[in-house]
Each structure stands twice: as structure tokens, then as C-alpha cells.
Amino acid sequence: MPDTIDADCEEDAGAWLKRQAPVWLTPVLMALALLEAGVVIAQAWLIAGIVFGVFVEAQSLPAVMPQMWLLLGVLVARALFAGIRQWLVGGASARVRRNLRSRLLERFEAAGPAGLPPAGELIPAFDEQVEALDGFYSRFAPQRISAMIVPLAILVFAFATDWLAGLLLLLTAPLIPMFMIIIGMGAEKLARDQFRSLARLGGWFLDQVHGAATIRLFRAEARVGAQVRQRTHALRTQTMRVLRLAFLSSAALEFFAAVAIASLAIYIGLGLLGYLTFGPAPALTLQSGLFLLLLAPEFFQPLRALSQGWHDRADANAAAGEIRSLLELSPARPGADEGFNPAARGKCRVELREVEFAHRGREPLFNGLDFEVRAGEKVVLVGPSGGGKSSLISMLAGFAEPSAGAVLLDGQPLTRLSNAALQAHVAWLGQHSVLFAGTIAENIALGWAQATREQVEAIAARARVSEFADRLPDGLDSPVGENGYGLSGGQAQRIALARALLRPRPLILLDEPTASLDPGSEAMVLAALADLLAERSATVICATHRAATMAWADRVVEVRQGELSCVR
Amino acid sequence: MRALIGLLWPGWTTARWMLLAALMALAAALLAVVLLAVSGWLITASALAGIGVLAALDIFAPGAIIRGAAVGRTVTRYLERLIGHEATFRQLAEIRIGAFTRLMAQSIARLEALGRGDTLSRLTRDVDVLDHVFPRLVLPTIAALGAAVVAIGYFFMRAPGAAIALGASLVGGGALVLVIGARLARGPGHRLAQATPAMRSALAEWLHGLGELFSVGRAGERSGRVMHGVLEQVRAQIAQRRIEAMMQTGIALFGYLGFWLVLLIALEMYAAGVLTAPVAAGMALVAVALVDAWMPLAASWSFLETCRQAAVRVEAVDQRGRARGRIEHVETPMGCRLQAEGLTFRYPGAIDPVIFGIDFELEEGEHVLVQGASGAGKTTLGKLLAGVLRPDSGHVALGGVDLSELGQALLRERVGMLSQRSMLFQDTLAANLRLGAPAATDADLELALDAVDLASFLDDLPDGLETWIGEHGRSVSGGEGRRIALARVLLADFRVLVLDEPMAGVDSATTATVAARLAAYLDGRSVVVLSHDANTLVRFDRRIVLTGMEGRSGKAADTGLPGH
């Protein structure tokens, strides 16, 4: 989070947050706030009337019983309105978060594997940041509306009853927003700094917890434990210094509210005693006096609640910024035409014409690149990391689009291909393959929904999956992934290879398929790959650091700083 | 609930701060009651005096009480917040230290396993939740309950009927609502505790596999599993909120009913001539003020379930996988000769043992290179030798003492291991290097960095050894990080070193340079290097090739080949 948040940005975030809420929320909350104001005033009016009737007019208890029953009704209504509001905002807030998560997920999917920030940023944004919006919808939004409506309604009745008392409230009321602004400027910053220090300490603690095994190996547990204590205490001392001041402003707010109530009580008391002869004071009765006194705390209550909910807003604003930037991720294939479905053949010609490509916010990697791979040719790309091998593969796989120029498969623009046609044409295998929770066979079959069991078994044998699967109790039907058998990286990569090559496709793209494996496993995967490619006529493009191990290559091309040159 | 109380039971210093904060909270709540009640009393008395029903009234004493209560409430609220934060911070330190100590009691193998999943992040999130129990749950409950007890006690002397009505409705009814609500919130709380991590891990899996899913056109379909977690979570959250709303309504209903009954009884007693009018009015207003103090409890108590779940999870870390108690210092090992016999080890969930009947010997000062294909058990052998894992059968002895009889402190003092997951902390470079050698001088650190060919890396750092590394500082590449970790283990002065792929991610030219410089550091120590790359060590006395189970030979072989 930046140190200073631009006021415009913050404003914007507030508007954006409001837009995410269901349209009915604000009107319904306003209606509920009006009802709330109504019952608050009715309650005060009835209590004052009953007390006045009994004490001053000497009415008997049965005579005021109808009013008592009415009061009970009003009190029940008040409890119900508050409950209904809670019920509604709780549901609305959960649904806003659900919708945002659903939209984020769609966005992630559209942006594709090459267009996404690392998972380490996406997962907290998807979970914690979206969750941080809750306070805005379930606390701040209703509090804000109540704070606008309830005090205003009370003020109207206060003025109508006794303009001097109304004036007293009116004069105290601006002090509260004023102090809220001071809190907004000074104390909120302090509170945010404090919150950030706390978060930093939390981050540091998380780091120690994650490194627990390392700490144990270095027998440093006592020292780190002492640091946990020392850092927490240091933060406490520092924070308490800040809080002593920060809490003063909210204390001032409470003070004004309390003093206003006290002055009002004394004013009413003196007025009733007949000591005050100016203004409306002589006209005060026990009824109007008690009515005003009962309204006074209700007048300040929503304002105090709002000032306490201020940090919910600050948290939500910060989170909104991050979520919005993720919702604006650009799609990987904006030009796809779902009606464009050329049939796939056994192998295909690949052409790149005057291709330009740049990663977001970086120097262009390719500038007018021309490259052609004949149908059925097997090409290996080598070169330093960052040279453009992966970007080239990404463009061919449809993970990213060139900013200019064209990528053609058999003369057809790849960017226009429908998603289904793209998947029918291109097979892709990356460096870190994933085993999903399920059986080995299910993991392989993920590559092609239409595949028969025989096809899955055949590819498992070729990719040398059966070699280890046969030794598991249920063979290919043994569970892997989470809660399943732990497989080595090389075994997982062979399953992924089978998955990628299950469906016969004319273009096979391999992006460093063995880079994360040790030599033993690498040899096994490479042997499986060589077997599989030998029997396929498909076009193959493979990025690797170890071209020497790929004897099947027809051509080795070096990719260096966006330039391609033939090596072999 | 026992877990929650056990984890949060404060130490004496913290408890004193807590008591003081609770006292302030109670005082603030009572002063709010006094402010409203005396105001009501004053107004009624004034009104009656004004029309001559009551004799002359001293307005100055109640006026002073009202002003005093107004100022007093502000001051006590301020102190409540300040002292409450002090207490919370003190407890935060206790909770963190407690959680950290529990974690440190786990075996290293289990800590590594925990680090692979989401458990540790969740542990810190749970600890964060526990931090809020005192200010959000305990403090408001004490204030509300205390104020109610004091007020009811006062009522009992003046109007027992009102005391009973208020006690039964506000306190009895309110407590019933809170207890039932907290009980009802258990189901959704439990579902939420399952759904959120499920959603996170489904998302992590989906993101990790997105390239493959995208290329086979299954990304959208598979994202349904994430969405399933999201929907589960939303359902649980909505259920939770509804219970909270019902609790809020229930508290308000019982509170208002209590107030209504007090008003009715007060009026009745006035009519019977037992109470004066001002006192009757004051009593009604006491009830109004008490309801205000009880209202926030609904939110506090529906938070209880979240805290309980967090406490149960923190506790669970403790209960599984504690490092098995070792008998400390039965014998002091004579020297540092490492001997292993008939080592067999099978990972839970695997069918074949990864290590089967291996014998191994490491003389003092000997350097041994262990090679082998992946899955052949190099890492496992290293962990068994370093005492991180315990063999299923066979045993490892250091200086003639079986590791299972050797104290952890002594073992960790003599045997160091550079694991593949050795972590760099987000801290200064110096602090990272001093993890195992707190007394090392800057010159020592520079020397060690030079040994791993990071001298020029150090020169480029803006603040030298004090440069912050990691996420919020200078980012470190995989190879650099690995070499910093290597320098760290060299500095720690272990007599036996087990280095697992020390040059992972380091290019071959640098590997050669480092290998040459390491010789001086390793001289005189016993060293086992586990690596697929023979160039990791310039000089080794023996080389062992593990063939492992996957390689079909069924058993590991000690080839005993001499080194260069």
C-alpha cells in the first residue's frame, strides 16, 4: 500500500464499492433508517407522554396502559428493524463477495496462464482482499445511511419541540463531523500506520513460522522466540505512544456527545424549575423535556458508530484498489471468433509474420519477427532465459497475442481460431505440471474428454506411466495429487506428457518440459518423449536448455534477444 | 472451548492489565447509566418542583453528578481503550510466543511437511483471530454484564420486582440468546472453517495447472471446483450472518422487554406511593442505558465460534507430530563418526520403501559424495543421517551413540544440514547469515560470502551486509539464495555437515568456483554431499551411488568408488 493515497483514487474506490452492491441496498437501507428514526422518535414520545401522564397529570396506571402497549409494539418494531437490517446487509455483503470472486475467476481464465500475476498475489487477493470488503457492506454502508438520516430526523423534532434544545444539538453536531475529519486526516493515518506496523510484524511472524524447520536445524529456536517477544513488545511500546494521541480525538468526540447530553439535561432542568426566562425555556414541560433528553443519546449514537466504522472503509478502499486492477486484466485472446473452426489435420505449418511482442510495461521482445516451421518439422528452441523462447511458445499456444503481425497455422490466423479449434490444433506441456486430485487415469483423460479407456491405457504405456502405475495397488486407477500417492517430479511429468499427447493434435508445443527435473528423471521423460514423437507426424516446437538430449530434432534454433538464428 | 481458554489464559502481568481494562470498561458503562438516570431524575424532579408538586430542589448536586458522569465517562472510555490495547498487545505477545513454542516442539520433518501446505499461513491467521478475543469478546461482555449486575443490585434495594424483571429479561433472556446463538453458529462456523481453505487450495491447484487446463480447454470447467468452494463459503457466511441478526434481534427484544417491565413496575410502585416520581423515572432510564450496553454483544458472541475454531486448529498443530521425546544426554558421543546400519524408510502413503537396508559410514573428517537418480532416496538418506527423519528399521549412531538416544540440542549442535528447502528470511543479509552463528563478526560473514562466490554480490548491495533481502528488499535469485544458505550453514561451524544439492540453481561455472573455495571450509569436518552433480565437491574420499527402488535393482549399493 502506498504511503499516501490519492484523494481522487479513494473517492473513486468508494464509488466503485457502492456500485458493486445490489441496487436495492441503498434505497432499502434508507427506508429502514427512516423507519428506525420513526420508532426512535415514537419511543421517546411515548415514554415522555406516559411519564408525564402519570407524574404530572396524575393519571392512573390503567389509563396509560394503551400507551404502554403501544410502546411495547414500538420497541418490538425497533428490535425487528435492526434485525432485518443486519439480515439484509449480511446477505448482500456475502453475495457481493461471491459475485466479485466469480468475476475474478472469469477474468483469470480469460487472461490465461501467461497474462496472470503470480499465484502468490492472486490467492490473497481472491481470499483476504475480497473478504476485507465485508466491513464496508455489512457495517459502514448501513452506518453511513443511518448517520445521515436518523440525526436529521431527530433534529427536526427537537427544533419543533424546543428550538433552543435543537440549536444545542445542531451546534454540537458539526463538532462531530469536524472531529471525524480530524480523525480522517490525522488519527486515521496514525491508526493506519499502526495497522501497517502490526501487519508488518504479522508478516515477519509468518516468515518465522514458515522457516520453522530451518530455525530448528540451526538450533536457533530460543533466539527467535526471544525475538518474537522483543519485537512484539517494541511494537507495543511504539504503538501505545501513538495511540495515546490517536484515542484523544475519539475521546473528544465522546466528550462532546456526553457534554451535550449533560448540558441539555441541565438546561431542561433549569427551564422546568422556571430559572430560565428566555426563549422557549418557560414552555418546557416534563413531557417535552423528557422527550428531548431521550432523543439526545439517539442523536449522537449513529455518528459515534460511523466514526468507529471508519477503518472498515479504509480497509475496503485499500482492498478495492487491488481487486479492481485484477478485474482489468486483459484477455489472452481478444480476437477469438467462435464461429471460426477450421478442421485439424495430422500436422500443420506454422508461420510468424512480422510479429511484435512485448510483456506488459516492458521493452518489446520481438520486433518484426518472421519465422516458419514446415508441416511435420520438429524444431528445438534454445537460448538464454529471457531471450524469448517461452514468449514464442506462449503466442503459439494462444496464451498471449502479438501486439502486431500474425501467427498462422496452415495459413489461418491463430488469433481468430475459436477456442475449440485452438484446442483441437495445439498440444502444450510446460515445466511444472500439475497432478489434480483424482486417479492417474482421470488425470490423463483430462487431456481429451472423448478418449476411450483403451486410448488412455495406450498413451500411459507409451509415456512410461504404466511403469510405475503398475506397481500401485490400483494401477492407473490409483489416486494421486492431494490425499493420493506422492509421485516424484519425473513421474508427474510423464503423466502430464500422456495428458498433453492423448489427443492427436497437429502442433505439439513443449516449454522446457524437463527443466525442473534431475538428470535421472529427465532421462526417463526424454526417452518417453522420443518414443512418442517418433510415431507422430505432428509438428513439434520445443524450448529447452538441453538441445543435445533431443536427437529427434530436425532443426535447432537459437532465440536470443528476440532474434532467431539457426544453430543446426 | 477448553482449547480457547487454554490458549488465551493470560500471564499475571497481562491479567493485571486486563483486569484494569475491564474495570475501566465497567466504569464507563456504569457512568453512561448514571448520566442518563440522573438526568431523568433531575428533569422529573425539576418539572415537579416547577409546578409546585415538589418542594424546593437542590439542582446543583445532581448537576454536578451529571457533569462529573459526562467527563468521567469520556475519561474511562479513553482509559478503557488505551489499557485494553495495552492488554491486547501483551496477550498478542503471549499468544505468538505460545504458538511459536508449540511449533518448535514439532519434529523438523513435520515442520517441513507443514510448510508445503497452507497450514502455517493458516496458523498465523488463526493467531491473528485469537488476538481479537479480549477486546472484541471479553471486554464488552464484562462491561455489559457488570453494569447489569450493579444496576440490578441497586434496584434490588429499592424495587425488588424491577430487579427481578430486568434480571430475568435482559440478563437471563439475553444470556440465553447469546448461548443459543453461539451454539447455532457452530454449524456454519465449522462449514466456513472447511470451505475457506478448500477454496484456497482449489484456486491454487487451478492456477498452477492453468497452462495445461487452458491448452486442453478445461479451464472453465475446472474453475467450477473453485466456485464450489466459494459458494460453500458464501452459504456458511450467510447462515452465520442470519444467526447474528437473530441474536441481535433477540438481545434487543429481551432488553426492551426488560425496560418496558421496569417502567411498568416503577409506575406501579409510584402509584402505590413506594417510589417518588424522580426515582421511578431514573429507574426506567437505567434500563434504557443498559440495553445500549448489551446491544454489541450479539456481534461479539457470534465471533466466538470463529475464535473457537482457530483455537482448535492451533491446538491441533501441537497434538500431532511432536518431536518424540528423546532421552537427553544419556551418553556424550565420542567424536563425530557417523554410522548407519540397515536403514529402511518408507514414506506414509508410498508402497515401496525409498531406502531399503542401507549401511553407511562416515569417518571423522571424511568427505562423501552420494549420487543417484531422483527418487533413489538421496534426500531421505541425508535426512536420516542428520536425524531429521527416523528410520523404520535400522539405526544411525553419532560417535557411538544412537541418534534416538541423543538429545536434540546436542544433535543439532554437531550435525548441520543444508536441506533443499532451507529458507531465507525477510531480514538483513547479516541476520540471515547469523542464524546459526550469532557471534560471527562481519569479517567472518564476508569471508563466508567470498567462499560461495558472492563477494561481488555483496559489493553491489546498497547497505552491504545490512541490506534487507527478500520480498521487501533486494530480491535474490534462486542461485544466489542457495549460496547464501550454503554460506549460512558453513558459518554455523557444525562438525558434521549434510549438504543436499548445495548447488541447486547455480550455473556450472560458479559451481566449479565455489567447489574449489569450499575445500578450505570443509577441511576437518565430516561432510556428506547429496547431489546428482559430481562437480559439487572438488575432493571427496568416497562416492556412493544410490540406485534406489525405481532403478529396479531393488536395493541401494555402496560402490565405494574413490574420488579424484
Question: Can you walk me through this structure?
Answer:
The complex is a heterodimer of chains A (568) and B (564). Chain A has 568 residues and is α/β, with parallel strands linked by helices. Chain A has helices spanning 7-20, 25-55, 61-111, 119-131, 134-161, 163-210, 212-217, 221-273, 286-308, 310-327, 389-397, 419-425, 440-445, 453-462, 466-469, 489-501, 519-534, and strands at 350-358, 364-373, 378-382, 404-409, 412-413, 426-429, 438-439, 479-480, 507-511, 539-543, 555-560, 563-566. In chain A, strands 6-9-10-3-11-12 form a six-stranded mixed sheet, with helices on both faces. In chain A, strands 2-1-4-5 form a four-stranded antiparallel sheet, covered by helices on one side. Chain B is of the alpha/beta class and 564 residues long. Helix content of chain B is 62%, strand content 10%. In chain B, a hairpin with a 2-residue loop joins strand 4 (393-398) and strand 5 (401-402). The radius of gyration of chain B is 34 Å and the shape is elongated. Mean pLDDT of chain B is 85; it is low at 549-564. Classes of the chains: A alpha/beta (568), B alpha/beta (564). At the A-B interface, helix 2, helix 3, helix 4, helix 6 and helix 7 of A face helix 2, helix 3, helix 4, helix 5 and helix 8 of B.
Note the main attributes of this structure:
heterodimer; A: 568 residues; alpha/beta; six-stranded mixed beta sheet; four-stranded antiparallel beta sheet; disordered N terminus; B: 564 residues; 20 helices; elongated
Fraction of helical residues of chain B: 55-70%
Strand composition percent of chain A: 5-15%
Oligomer: heterodimer
Q: Work out the radius of gyration of chain A.
A: 35 Å
Strand order of the largest sheet of chain B: 6-9-10-3-11-12
Overall 3D geometry of chain A?
Answer: elongated
Mean pLDDT of chain A: 85
